[in-house]
Structures are given as structure tokens and as C-alpha cells.
TrEMBL record:
Pyridoxamine kinase/Phosphomethylpyrimidine kinase domain: residues covered: 13-251
Pathway named in the protein's UniProt entry: Cofactor biosynthesis; thiamine diphosphate biosynthesis
Domain called Thiamine phosphate synthase/TenI: residue spans: 296-474
Organism the protein comes from: Pelomonas lactea
Protein name: hydroxymethylpyrimidine kinase
Gene Ontology molecular functions: hydroxymethylpyrimidine kinase activity; phosphomethylpyrimidine kinase activity
InterPro entries: Aldolase_TIM, HMP/HMP-P_kinase_dom, PM/HMP-P_kinase-1, Ribokinase-like, ThiamineP_synth_sf, ThiamineP_synth_TenI
CC cofactor: Mg(2+)
EC numbers, comma separated: 2.7.1.49
Keyword hit for Kinase: yes
């Protein structure tokens, strides 16, 4: 497999903390090839920036021309540019590269050093607004940079920044128990958060974040997934170690960050006040997880030995509310009664308010259901959870897994593991590698779902480390005992090694 190439056009930090030095560390941890292009040279140490010397425009142009002949990029990332002339060299080359094929542009608008030195006057700010940002795929300003670009007190949680489709406004330097970044993208919007880390080595966080995001785009991830990976890498590099100078030391991410479970962020609808607590007690589900399309089938599955069954019903077009609730109640009753007889777990899909009214205490919601919740419904669901309602959530991508984490559910479903005809969806199959990564990284149990047609597939799900495996159509074709035997066989096998990286489940940027 060819290693993706990205260009970073940024400043050279003589202290080795930020700029191209940070970009190189992030690119190495992400497993991409970085071409470091100097747009400015700085005289700085760990405490202060003493001077900035923009590289002459013709020298910057020569660097890019040389690279274009032999090392064309998948993604270009910009940092400190030094001046309007340098910015215009970049825009010209982005346009030339895009004439040859798709090239993403990640703009980290480095306008001020963390020590307070300003890198941009009014003319350069206007060039960002009028010339560079309109070409950007993603922009990653911090809160102060976003304010300078669009005006003080800008509504940062609103979309998008100066026409850029994906914006991630980083805010890890703000006080509070959580480090929160605002994400707006075509795939998802919300607050990416992780517990705040006290670290002296925090010089170059913005550079690392932007480069990691660029690298993730180069590896084929869509922007929302790329932002999740960038959050993970940057947090991993915040270390409490001794610093090489008197000021802040450099962020130092390592390749192993991708399998550190504590680095998976949550994606919250509103700014969170605290990190969500995990559900207490043993796993809510384990083993073979059946999905039935009627209450009678669900009851039969419980009687045949399944300990977890979900009832998946859809409201018919034109069906009135009263008729729907009557039908739902009639379908729920036999399944609920059978579950109680066997001490089993009965789950209702989607219809959480109706399920509660019918005495069901476990519901499953898809991502579209979560997005459809208004402020009142989110509050009501949270209150129901506090009173004991158990919850499972679907996920098909990194950002959906992060959104699920924010709800602290009882389990997360990962799918489709294999291609499925049960319902149309845009997602690529996750495969057993992504399922194993989900199982290793998720703070709650993971269920493998999608395309399970023969017992051997259930064996492989069990061996992946997942807590349970879903089967739908296969329950009508083979006896329940065949599926139970398959689960036991897989659960007794040596665990599948954790994959080094997940693969993208949607097409890239």
C-alpha cells in the first residue's frame, strides 16, 4: 500500500516545538509521508517568539514546484505563512494541483503565537478571508483565531466559517474539566470532548491537530472522522514529562495512540459539563442478539433459548397514531411476557416513549433517531435514563461512535460488519478489523451487526472481542441452537489481535 503524501506549508520553529517540527511528529504518528515546506523562519525558543522572517515568495514557489514534480500531495496543510505574498503562492499551487486531480486543503490560520506574538496584520487577515479560506476543505482555528477572522464574539457553534464546509474550532486551552472543540462538518456537528489533561508539553497542539486531521483525510477518512482522529492524537501527545527548556515543551504523539481506549472522544450536542459515567454492573447483553419483526417471533426466540431479542417494527405510511400505538402494544405484549418468563432481555427499536409507556425498560436508537431529538426530547430521554431506562445505540463510523460515547449507552452496535440487504445504507462494510477496533476502544460493550447469514460469521464475531453478535434473517433459516453453538465456539477462541488502525467506512473528503 502506498504511503499517502501530504504537504505542510508552515513556519520553522527554531525551538523545535511548533510549526514544521510539530507537523513532522504528528505525520509520523499518523503513518503518512510529510513534505515540510518552509513559508517562514522564526527565531523562537520555548518561552517566546523573537522574530519572524517570511521566506521570499520565489523560494517558497521553488519548493512547491520541486515537490509537484515528484511528490504530489493528497492533502495540503497550511500553518504560519508569513505574509500575503506567501499566501498567494499557496493559492496558486492549490489551484494548479486541483487541475490534475482532487487535493484537500486544511487551513490552520496561525495568526498569533501561544506566547502572544502576532503573526498577521489586517492585510493578511483579509487575504485569508478572501483567498485562502474559500479554497479550504477544513479550517482549524482556535477560539481567538476564529474571533479575529469573523469578528469578536462570533457565534462559533454556528456554521460554517467564511464558507468553509468543515470547521473545527479548537478550545483545549480553555479552563474546565473537559477539553472541547467545536466541530461543524457535512457529516456531523457538535462538541468533541475529552477529559482535560494537565501537561507541560503542550507547545504545538494546534499544529499537531491540523496535521493529524490532514493525514486522516489523506488516509481516506471523511472530515468528521478525521477530526476524531486528530483529537485522539493531540490528546495523546500531551505529556507531563520534563520540558527541554524553561517554557512549554512540545506535544509528542506516538503511533500507538490509535489503540489507547481512553483517547476516544465523545461528540456532544451541547457543551458538556462533565465526562459521562459508564453504566454500572455486568454487560447488559452478551452472546447471540436476535432481531425479530413481530412480537410472536420474539417470543418464539426467547422460548428457543435466546437471552436478548430486539423487536424491530416500522410504522406504516399513513398509519394513524392511535392505530400505531395499538399495534405496537399488541406486538410488545407477547415478547415482553416471554422475556419475563425466561429472565431475558427484551429491547424495542426506535420507539422509546411508547416502549416506556408499555413497561419496556430497554430501547435501541439509531443515529438518525438521536439527531431527530429536540431539546425537550433529549432532556426527557436523559431523565428516563436516570430513572433506569437502558439504551443501545447504532454506529457506523468514528464520529457516530463518538456520538454514542457521549450518551454513555449500555452498548454500541458496530455495523454493518458484512454487506447487508436488510436496509439500504451508504456505509462500507466494517469488517472484522473495525469490529475488533470498536470492541477494544469503546468504553461500553460492542455488538457486531450486519450481514450475518451463517453460523461461521457468528463464530468470528465472538472471536473479535465483541460482547454480542446480531442475527436477523438467519434466525428464520437455521435453528437458534446453531447460532448459540457458534457463539460459544468463537468465544472460546483466542482473542483477535487488535488492529493497528480502523479503516474508513465512508468515501474520503
Amino acid at each position: 500500500m502506498t504511503t499517502p503524501i501530504i504537504w505542510s506549508i508552515a513556519g520553522l520553529d527554531s525551538g523545535g516545538g511548533a510549526g514544521l517540527s510539530a507537523d513532522q511528529r504528528a505525520a509520523d504518528a499518523m503513518g503518512v509521508h510529510l513534505c515540510p515546506v518552509a513559508a517562514a523562519v522564526t527565531a523562537q525558543n520555548s518561552r517566546a517568539v523573537e522574530a519572524v522572517f517570511p521566506v521570499p515568495a520565489e523560494q517558497l514557489d521553488a519548493q512547491l514546484a520541486a515537490l509537484a514534480q515528484d511528490l504530489p500531495p493528497v492533502v495540503v496543510k497550511t500553518g504560519l505563512l508569513g505574509g500575503v505574498a506567501q499566501l498567494r503562492v499557496v493559492t496558486r499551487w492549490v489551484d494548479r494541483l486541483r487541475e490534475r486531480g482532487p487535493v484537500a486543503l486544511v487551513v490552520d490560520p496561525v495568526l498569533r503565537a501561544s506566547t502572544g506574538a502576532s503573526f498577521a496584520g489586517d492585510e493578511l487577515l483579509q487575504a485569508y478571508r478572501d483567498e485562502l479560506l474559500p479554497r479550504a476543505t477544513v479550517a482549524t482555528p482556535n477560539r481567538r483565531e476564529a474571533d479575529r477572522l469573523v469578528g469578536e464574539g462570533c457565534p462559533q457553534q454556528q456554521s460554517p466559517l467564511l464558507g468553509v464546509q468543515t470547521v473545527c474550532i479548537t478550545g483545549g486551552d480553555a479552563a474546565g474539566p473537559l477539553a472541547q472543540d467545536w466541530l461543524h462538518s457535512p457529516q456531523a456537528s457538535g462538541w468533541l470532548a475529552l477529559p482535560w489533561r494537565a501537561a507541560r508539553n503542550n507547545h504545538g497542539t494546534g499544529c499537531c491537530f491540523a496535521t493529524a486531521l490532514a493525514a486522516a483525510l489523506a488516509k481516506g477518512f471523511v472530515p468528521a472522522d478525521a477530526a476524531v482522529l486528530a483529537k485522539m492524537l493531540t490528546t495523546a501527545g500531551l505529556l507531563p514529562d520534563a520540558t527541554p527548556g524553561a517554557g512549554a515543551g512540545p506535544v509528542r504523539p506516538a503511533p500507538g495512540f490509535i489503540t489507547e481506549a481512553g483517547l476516544l472522544p465523545g461528540l456532544f450536542d451541547t457543551p458538556p459539563a462533565r465526562w459521562p459515567a459508564r453504566p454500572d454492573g455486568p454487560p447488559a447483553i452478551e452472546g447471540v442478539y436476535g432481531i425479530a419483526d413481530s412480537g410472536a417471533q420474539a417470543a418464539e426466540l426467547f422460548d428457543a433459548g435466546l437471552t436478548t431479542v430486539q423487536l424491530r417494527l416500522k410504522r406504516a405510511a399513513g398509519e394513524s397514531g392511535a392505530a400505531w400505538h395499538t399495534r405496537l402494544a399488541a406486538e410488545v405484549q407477547p415478547a415482553r411476557d416471554a422475556a419475563r418468563r425466561h429472565g431475558a432481555t427484551f429491547i424495542v427499536n426506535d420507539h422509546w416513549r411508547a416502549a416506556l409507556a408499555l413497561g419496556v425498560d430497554f430501547v435501541h436508537l439509531g443515529q438518525e433517531d438521536l439527531l431527530a431529538l429536540d431539546t425537550t426530547a433529549r432532556a426527557d430521554l436523559a431523565q428516563a435514563r436516570a430513572r433506569g431506562l437502558r439504551l443501545g445505540i447504532s454506529s457506523h463510523s468514528l464520529w457516530e461512535l463518538a456520538r454514542a460515547v457521549a450518551w454513555a449507552p449500555d452498548y454500541v452496535a458496530c455495523g454493518p460488519v458484512w454487506p447487508t440487504l436488510t436496509k439500504a445504507m451508504p456505509w462500507r462494510p466494517q469488517g472484522l478489523d473495525n469490529l475488533a477496533w470498536w470492541a477494544a476502544m469503546s468504553p461500553v460493550p460492542v455488538v457486531g451487526i450486519g450481514g450475518v447469514m451463517v453460523p461461521e460469521q457468528m463464530v468470528r464475531i465472538a472471536a473479535s472481542g465483541a460482547a454480542a453478535g446480531c442475527v436477523v434473517r438467519g434466525l428464520k433459516e437455521l435453528p437458534v441452537q446453531d447460532w448459540l453453538d457458534a457463539w460459544r465456539s468463537g468465544a472460546g477462541m483466542p482473542a483477535t489481535p487488535d488492529p493497528a488502525w480502523p479503516h474508513p467506512s465512508l468515501g474520503g473528503a
